[in-house]
């Protein structure tokens, strides 16, 4: 296999896109998107990840232009500026940042690691993950795991949504209870995800746009369902815990509705408020607002930002290691082709020599072994210097030398290497003249003469 190709990617995420943009970019499933990408001519590998906060696609092609074409129709219904395109090195760095939690709504959150692993399995199931993406994704997941074990990137409560759930756990026995999250935006999504890590029995997600609520409900493993905003009073009557986080200018819950709901813990994360302040006077209702939780999150938010600096340095180090591994593998492809070609020639000439020697008199086993060892030694010594040169060429980003080696020694090589990595320049000059009696395929000789 020729370990080549370049990665191209596109991303629609919370960083510069709305929930509507992200939803418009998503397909029915990650597997379906990978199959769609693989159907494009020239796409060798493909990967996709879709969550509440991002929809991203990655392809490996021999040429970056082919990759860009394959991704050009990724999000046709998304507004200008919401789609970010990434080249080879940007794609690799971005995957590492995603895995480490640096691209998450809540810096360092843990859920993204599991989502990446699941997406990798989905892509692998339909043949999307080859050697290039396997190395890249494996490295990204390794970085994510290192970030969480070697730094404080995921320690403490940093979002109001997770702080609200932490408060609820300290106030209620959540085992088997029903929780209502009102709002499917950033804060509501984080609250739903945090509830998903508890022993809550049922999660209801209410939102003005029901499909958004359905999307959040589909992302969590707890029994969950979506309801319309006008069904909130009825849902509140069923719930033991209510967390509100909408952008409504008016109250979503009033004291009268809560009075009819019985024993309920209500946590209002919205600004302006979602819950009428008079709710605090209703019997059976325990009420907390955003002021209660701000102090809880401030300290750990600062701690995670400090840890993020360590994670960035870690990514720089792992990124360079991965690029070096790519270079070694590309050189190894050329070296392997060179040795295979030499082995074919050696074996053919050895058979000819043995036949001639046998005609002059029968050879002993020891004599046969001596001749074979001589042939092996000649091949090894002759290819020692080219092997060293090819490894040095890869280290120096001299892909022209590697391309020439592939043309000379690999009969199946198509003659084009992938796009040069960022910053790489081809080496000046042409291959040396080849003796007319050299044992080289006619196709390669013709190509060299054309040069």
UniProtKB/TrEMBL annotation:
<dbReference type="InterPro" id="IPR036453">
    <property type="entry name" value="GluRdtase_dimer_dom_sf"/>
</dbReference>
<feature type="binding site">
    <location>
        <position position="104"/>
    </location>
    <ligand>
        <name>substrate</name>
    </ligand>
</feature>
<feature type="site" description="Important for activity">
    <location>
        <position position="94"/>
    </location>
</feature>
<feature type="compositionally biased region" description="Basic and acidic residues">
    <location>
        <begin position="425"/>
        <end position="445"/>
    </location>
</feature>
<feature type="binding site">
    <location>
        <begin position="183"/>
        <end position="188"/>
    </location>
    <ligand>
        <name>NADP(+)</name>
    </ligand>
</feature>
<dbReference type="GO" id="GO:0008883">
    <property type="term" value="F:glutamyl-tRNA reductase activity"/>
</dbReference>
<dbReference type="GO" id="GO:0050661">
    <property type="term" value="F:NADP binding"/>
</dbReference>
<dbReference type="InterPro" id="IPR018214">
    <property type="entry name" value="GluRdtase_CS"/>
</dbReference>
<feature type="binding site">
    <location>
        <begin position="51"/>
        <end position="54"/>
    </location>
    <ligand>
        <name>substrate</name>
    </ligand>
</feature>
<comment type="function">
    <text>Catalyzes the NADPH-dependent reduction of glutamyl-tRNA(Glu) to glutamate 1-semialdehyde (GSA).</text>
</comment>
<keyword id="KW-0560">Oxidoreductase</keyword>
<feature type="domain" description="Quinate/shikimate 5-dehydrogenase/glutamyl-tRNA reductase">
    <location>
        <begin position="167"/>
        <end position="296"/>
    </location>
</feature>
<feature type="binding site">
    <location>
        <begin position="109"/>
        <end position="111"/>
    </location>
    <ligand>
        <name>substrate</name>
    </ligand>
</feature>
<keyword id="KW-0521">NADP</keyword>
<feature type="binding site">
    <location>
        <position position="115"/>
    </location>
    <ligand>
        <name>substrate</name>
    </ligand>
</feature>
<dbReference type="InterPro" id="IPR036291">
    <property type="entry name" value="NAD(P)-bd_dom_sf"/>
</dbReference>
<dbReference type="InterPro" id="IPR015896">
    <property type="entry name" value="4pyrrol_synth_GluRdtase_dimer"/>
</dbReference>
<protein>
    <recommendedName>
        <fullName>Glutamyl-tRNA reductase</fullName>
        <ecNumber>1.2.1.70</ecNumber>
    </recommendedName>
</protein>
<comment type="similarity">
    <text>Belongs to the glutamyl-tRNA reductase family.</text>
</comment>
<dbReference type="Pfam" id="PF01488">
    <property type="entry name" value="Shikimate_DH"/>
</dbReference>
<dbReference type="InterPro" id="IPR006151">
    <property type="entry name" value="Shikm_DH/Glu-tRNA_Rdtase"/>
</dbReference>
<comment type="subunit">
    <text>Homodimer.</text>
</comment>
<keyword id="KW-0627">Porphyrin biosynthesis</keyword>
<comment type="pathway">
    <text>Porphyrin-containing compound metabolism; protoporphyrin-IX biosynthesis; 5-aminolevulinate from L-glutamyl-tRNA(Glu): step 1/2.</text>
</comment>
<feature type="region of interest" description="Disordered">
    <location>
        <begin position="410"/>
        <end position="451"/>
    </location>
</feature>
<feature type="domain" description="Glutamyl-tRNA reductase N-terminal">
    <location>
        <begin position="10"/>
        <end position="151"/>
    </location>
</feature>
<dbReference type="InterPro" id="IPR000343">
    <property type="entry name" value="4pyrrol_synth_GluRdtase"/>
</dbReference>
<dbReference type="GO" id="GO:0019353">
    <property type="term" value="P:protoporphyrinogen IX biosynthetic process from glutamate"/>
</dbReference>
<feature type="domain" description="Tetrapyrrole biosynthesis glutamyl-tRNA reductase dimerisation">
    <location>
        <begin position="311"/>
        <end position="410"/>
    </location>
</feature>
<dbReference type="InterPro" id="IPR015895">
    <property type="entry name" value="4pyrrol_synth_GluRdtase_N"/>
</dbReference>
<dbReference type="Pfam" id="PF05201">
    <property type="entry name" value="GlutR_N"/>
</dbReference>
<dbReference type="Pfam" id="PF00745">
    <property type="entry name" value="GlutR_dimer"/>
</dbReference>
<feature type="active site" description="Nucleophile">
    <location>
        <position position="52"/>
    </location>
</feature>
<dbReference type="InterPro" id="IPR036343">
    <property type="entry name" value="GluRdtase_N_sf"/>
</dbReference>
């Amino acid at each position: 296999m020729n370990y080549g190709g370049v990665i191209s990617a596109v991303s629609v995420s919370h960083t510069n896109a709305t929930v509507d943009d992200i939803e418009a970019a998503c397909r029915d499933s990650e597997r379906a998107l990978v199959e769609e990408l693989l159907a494009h001519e020239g796409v060798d590998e493909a990967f996709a990840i879709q969550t509440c906060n991002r929809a991203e696609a990655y392809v490996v092609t021999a040429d970056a232009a082919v990759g860009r074409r394959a991704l050009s129709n990724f999000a046709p219904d998304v507004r200008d500026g919401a789609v970010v395109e990434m080249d080879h090195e940007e794609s690799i760095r971005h995957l590492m940042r995603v895995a480490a939690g640096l691209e998450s709504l809540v810096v360092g959150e843990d859920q993204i690691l599991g989502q990446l692993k699941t997406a990798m399995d989905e892509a692998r199931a339909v043949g999307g993950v080859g050697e290039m993406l396997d190395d890249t994704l494996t490295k990204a997941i390794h970085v994510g795991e290192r970030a969480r074990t070697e730094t404080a990137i995921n320690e403490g409560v940093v979002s109001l949504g997770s702080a609200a759930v932490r408060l609820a756990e300290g106030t209620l026995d959540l085992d088997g209870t029903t929780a209502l999250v009102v709002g499917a935006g950033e804060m509501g999504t984080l609250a739903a995800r945090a509830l998903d890590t508890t022993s809550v029995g049922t999660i209801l997600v209410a939102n003005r746009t029901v499909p958004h609520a359905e999307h959040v409900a589909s992302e969590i493993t707890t029994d969950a369902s979506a309801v319309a905003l006008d069904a909130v009073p009825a849902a509140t009557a069923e719930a033991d815990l209510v967390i509100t986080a909408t952008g409504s200018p008016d109250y979503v819950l009033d004291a009268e509705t809560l009075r009819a709901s019985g024993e309920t813990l209500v946590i209002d994360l919205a600004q302006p408020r979602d819950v009428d302040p008079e709710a605090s006077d209703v019997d059976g209702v325990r009420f907390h607002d955003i002021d209660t939780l701000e102090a809880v999150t401030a300290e750990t938010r600062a701690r995670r930002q400090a840890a993020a600096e360590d994670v960035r340095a870690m990514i720089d180090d792992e990124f360079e290691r991965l690029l070096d591994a790519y270079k070694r593998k590309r050189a190894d492809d050329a070296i392997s082709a060179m040795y295979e070609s030499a082995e074919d020639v050696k074996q053919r000439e050895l058979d000819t020599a043995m036949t001639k020697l046998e005609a002059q008199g029968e050879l002993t086993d020891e004599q046969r072994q001596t001749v074979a060892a001589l042939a092996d030694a000649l091949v090894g010594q002759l290819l020692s210097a080219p092997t060293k040169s090819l490894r040095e060429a890869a280290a120096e980003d001299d892909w022209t030398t590697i391309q020439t080696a592939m043309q000379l020694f690999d009969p199946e090589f198509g003659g084009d290497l992938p796009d040069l990595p960022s910053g790489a320049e081809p080496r000046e000059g042409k291959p040396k003249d080849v003796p007319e009696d050299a044992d080289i395929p006619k196709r390669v000789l013709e190509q060299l003469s054309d040069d």
